[in-house]
């Protein structure tokens, strides 16, 4: 008798637990009867996408992270600014999503992150390797794909690009050569003058041996792009640069800062404790995104003021 009563009690508890679970997981609906996410279900979404580069004739991987509000049924007309995040030498497209909390950051700031696989390209269009044409890929093919497939602002005011080390060089290289595409740009521990680190980190594989191609190397050094910045469309770009005091590119970045001051180019420049590590770069990203978010706010005002 006691055994039968115990079985009945356990069965009743199982039914109650199943019912409670079903109620907790039941989807909610809005006023139009459309299914919506519960607060517990809402989160940013990260997708790994493959894009065919017509310039290189091969597929390139990228991670795209959209904020949680991107899927809100009441915000389906909302557009989002885009931040392009570039990795360093010997890295890949997965580095930033693995190291930094891009999901929360995307939702907090209402931005889309795009992390392309730049391989060891230095984000040049290599004059000697047709399979390494990453300036064209990032500044044209990738941007066009993102603007076509996601709800972005197709406007330079609402795009930013930054990165670490090789990616810091690449971000300024791409933004300063394509100010019509990127209005805001940044660098963390970037190699601002590749001529001072000849034949390291695969640069010679992209530009040829330094001793035989010194002019080519000089033309691909970010610091030598500064004279072109005064010719960029108005309003001038938003530039943020930082480095750690113990970083191998510390002197390199100081020289860039001094050259920008001499050319009277407005920019934010910060030296903080730290060296060439992910601890430094993840912390640095917070400052860059805050800087970019303020630029995006100005960008909205500029777009609204245009006829």
Protein architecture, described:
Strand 7 (159-163), helix 5 (166-177) and strand 8 (184-188) form a beta-alpha-beta unit. This protein has one domain: Rossmann fold (3-Layer(aba) Sandwich). The protein has helices at residues 2-25, 95-99, 102-109, 134-149, 166-177, 203-207, 214-219, 250-262, 278-305; strands at 28-29, 35-36, 45-53, 58-66, 82-86, 112-116, 159-163, 184-188, 238-244, 268-272. The model is unreliable at 1-41 (pLDDT under 50). The protein is 38% helix and 18% strand. The N and C termini lie far apart (85 Å).
Topology diagram in text:
Layout: H1 2-25, E1 28-29, E2 35-36, E3 45-53, E4 58-66, E5 82-86, H2 95-99, H3 102-109, E6 112-116, H4 134-149, E7 159-163, H5 166-177, E8 184-188, H6 203-207, H7 214-219, E9 238-244, H8 250-262, E10 268-272, H9 278-305
Parallel strand pairs: 5-6, 5-7, 7-8, 8-9, 9-10
Antiparallel strand pairs: 1-2, 3-4, 4-6
Distance separating the two termini = 85 Å
How do the strands line up in the largest sheet?
3-4-6-5-7-8-9-10
Which CATH-level-2 architecture?
3-Layer(aba) Sandwich
Regions with little confidence, pLDDT below 50 for 5+ residues? 1-41
Element pattern in H and E: HEEEEEHHEHEHEHHEHEH
Index terms:
single chain; 307 residues; alpha/beta; Rossmann fold; eight-stranded mixed sheet; two-stranded antiparallel sheet; 10 strands; 38% helix; disordered N terminus
């Amino acid at each position: 008798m006691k055994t039968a009563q115990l079985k009945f009690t356990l069965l009743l508890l199982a039914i109650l637990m199943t019912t409670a679970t079903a109620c907790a997981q039941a989807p909610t609906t809005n006023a139009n009867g459309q299914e919506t996410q519960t607060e517990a279900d809402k989160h940013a979404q990260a997708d790994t996408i493959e894009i065919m580069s017509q310039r290189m004739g091969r597929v390139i991987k990228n991670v795209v992270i959209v904020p949680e509000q991107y899927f809100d049924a009441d915000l389906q007309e909302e557009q989002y600014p885009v931040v392009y995040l570039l990795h360093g030498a010997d890295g890949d497209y997965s580095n930033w999503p693995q190291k930094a909390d891009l999901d929360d950051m995307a939702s907090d700031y209402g931005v889309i992150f795009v992390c392309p696989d730049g391989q060891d390209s230095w984000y040049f269009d290599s004059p000697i390797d047709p399979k390494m044409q990453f300036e064209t890929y990032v500044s044209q093919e990738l941007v066009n794909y993102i603007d076509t497939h996601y709800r972005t602002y197709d406007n330079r005011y609402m795009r930013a690009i930054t990165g670490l080390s090789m990616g810091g060089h690449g971000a300024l290289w791409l933004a300063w050569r394509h100010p019509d595409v990127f209005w805001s740009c940044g660098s963390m521990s970037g190699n601002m003058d590749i001529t001072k680190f000849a034949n390291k980190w695969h640069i010679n594989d992209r530009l040829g041996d330094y001793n035989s191609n010194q002019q080519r190397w000089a033309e691909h050094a970010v610091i030598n792009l500064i004279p072109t910045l005064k010719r960029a469309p108005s309003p001038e770009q938003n530039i943020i640069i930082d480095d750690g005091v113990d970083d191998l590119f510390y002197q390199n970045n100081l020289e860039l800062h001094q050259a920008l001051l001499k050319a009277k180019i407005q920019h934010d420049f910060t030296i903080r404790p730290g060296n060439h590590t992910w601890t430094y770069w993840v912390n640095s990203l917070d400052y860059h995104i805050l800087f970019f978010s303020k630029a995006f706010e100005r960008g909205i005002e500029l777009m609204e003021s245009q006829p």
